[in-house]
Amino acid sequence: MHSMTRIMIVGATGLVGSELLALALAHPAVSHVVAPVRRTLPAHARLLAPVVDFEHLPGQADWWAVDVLLCALGTTRRDAGSAEAFIRVDHDYPMAVARLARNHGVPNLVAVSAAGADAGSRLLYPRSKGLLEDGLREAGFDSITLLRPSLLLGRRVRVRPLEQLAMRVLPTLAPLLPARYRPVRASAVAAAMLAAALAPQPGVRVVESVDIGSLAVCAPTH
Q1: Residues paired with residue 70 on neighbouring β-strands, in sequence order
Q2: Cα 136 from Cα 138, distance rounded (Å)
Q3: What CATH number is associated with residue 152?
């Protein structure tokens, strides 16, 4: 691993991704960040944010050459507009990015999945996350960390009414919930992703929601 780590973040404008981007740009062990996005990001001396179409990614771009890919790309069925559009953003785009990154020699991957991810589920969300996990495992990375957060707490650009209610009620109920389903802060998921990126472990590591907080405090500081 380089003493200074080059990272790529996909999903850098989302709830977790925006927290992750801020942490990465502030971290002394990160040399620079590549963040392919659909809309322009504010300029930063260590940030390259190419505006891309995820349906037609530039496979030959030289910015694919990084040390680790961090994937926080995702949506909801409601925001996507249909099950097909949801699967494209939640599964197809992350897989396309992962394959291109691997083709360019990127050795390490950290990705956000979800509690209950299961490729055999009848439910769209856990099924798509399970299928994504399976695809990423087969992509050939040396190190893969899959984080499975439960409900994410944080400041969303677009807050849905049921999520708003859940975010108010669940923190109070959290002690009564099974540990793996207790809500987790987006900032903790972002910190855990960066920690995993800066200290990759060989093979596949799955981090359940209850363990995300302990991983989040492990990021090297230099």
Answers
A1: 9, 110
A2: 5
A3: 3.40.50.720
Spatial distance between the Cα atoms of 192 and 218, rounded to a whole number of angstroms: 8
Q: For residues 155 and 143, what is the distance between their CA atoms, to the nearest angstrom?
A: 30
- Structure tokens belonging to residue 74: 């995702």
Rounded Cα–Cα distance for residues 106 and 139 (Å): 11
Residues of the domain holding 173: 5-216
pLDDT given for residue 187 in this prediction: 92
- Residue 221 falls inside a structural domain: no
Question: What is the rounded distance in angstroms from the CA atom of residue 109 to the CA atom of residue 11?
Answer: 14
Q: Is residue 90 a part of any domain in this protein?
A: yes
Burial status of residue 175 (CB atoms within 10 A of its CB: 0-12, 13-18, 19 or more): exposed
Rounded CA separation 175/183 (Å) = 10
89-105: string of b/e by CB count within 10 Å (b at 16+)? bbbbbbbbbbbbbbebe
In the chain, % helix, strand, coil (3-state, to 5) comes to 40, 20, 40
| pTM > 0.85 | yes
The predicted-structure confidence for 119-157, as pLDDT tens digits, reads as follows 999 999 999 999 999 999 999 999 999 999 987 776 544
Whether residue 32 contacts residue 65, with contact meaning beta carbons closer than 8 Å, is answered with no
Q: Structural domain tally of the chain?
A: 1
Q: Does some domain include residue 222?
A: no
The neighbouring-strand residues paired with 203 are 143
